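Title: Comparing notes on inverse folding

I've been comparing how different people in this forum approach sequence design from structure. To keep things fair, I'm posting one structure and asking everyone to reply with a full sequence. Here's the target:
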């Protein structure tokens, strides 16, 4: 049985004092869950978040990284820099980064390799646009993004990648994918991994759903056969709502 992993992606939100308050408030509400809880916070909140989650079951992730260890890359942060301060996870290839900052399947692949080289666990985002969906290309696009993202990784590394299937039309729109649709896309991602790395690997990869995840629909989504949790944007900024999503399997 794969574990469920529920990660918040705060995007460009929250100041250090808000981060500390949020974690202090949510920690007691999620302390008894068997699900993995991760908060991916802005770089400027990382240090405060890492200090505040000590002695809790909450893990901390960043939202991006550069693939080089250091060098003349103004404004960038490397995997090594994240690792030394205690970060465990890093989101790679979010659609907002692909769209606004020209990330490509190639840079996504380089970043994943660098994340592993620095012992960080990558959360890799894939997903189709509305146009691609309407053209019937969803499966083709997400399989291709998955294949190129994972190219050159060992079986052991692939087992430890977390993939987030995030249809772009569902992000920040309030239009959550149906559980059938999301599960079916995630199944095709798993099939693609199986065709390259074998069933033993594909059965272990955690594949989340992201895109307007809310507490009312979390249970339905996460209890399907192939959805192993969620990458949550807007709803992860609210203590009560995010704690309900994490505790979807209680009561
Ligand atoms: P929303 O949950 O706000 O739609 O964002 C999803 C997302 O992009 C998470 O990475």
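Reply #1:
Here's my take.
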């Amino acid at each position: 049985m794969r574990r469920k992993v529920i990660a918040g992606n705060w995007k460009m939100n929250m100041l250090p004092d808000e981060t500390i308050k949020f974690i202090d408030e949510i920690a007691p509400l999620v302390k008894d869950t068997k699900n993995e809880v991760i908060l991916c916070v802005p770089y400027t909140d990382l240090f405060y978040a890492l200090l505040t989650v000590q002695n809790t079951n909450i893990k901390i992730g960043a939202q991006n990284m550069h693939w080089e260890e250091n060098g003349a890359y103004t404004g960038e942060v490397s995997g090594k820099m994240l690792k030394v301060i205690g970060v465990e996870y890093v989101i790679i290839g979010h659609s907002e980064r692909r769209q606004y900052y020209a990330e490509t399947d190639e840079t996504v692949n380089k970043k994943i390799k660098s994340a592993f080289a620095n012992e960080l666990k990558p959360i890799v985002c894939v997903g189709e646009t509305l146009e691609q969906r309407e053209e019937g290309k969803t499966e083709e696009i997400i399989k291709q993004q998955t294949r190129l993202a994972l190219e050159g990784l060992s079986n052991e590394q692939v087992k430890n990648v977390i993939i987030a299937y995030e249809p772009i039309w569902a992000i920040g729109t309030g239009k959550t994918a149906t559980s059938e649709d999301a599960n079916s896309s995630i199944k095709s991602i798993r099939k693609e991994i199986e065709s390259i790395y074998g069933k033993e690997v594909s059965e272990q990869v955690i594949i989340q759903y992201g895109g307007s995840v809310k507490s009312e629909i979390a249970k339905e989504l996460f209890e399907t056969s192939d959805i192993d949790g969620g990458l949550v944007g807007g709803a992860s900024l609210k203590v009560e709502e995010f704690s309900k999503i994490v505790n979807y399997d209680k009561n």
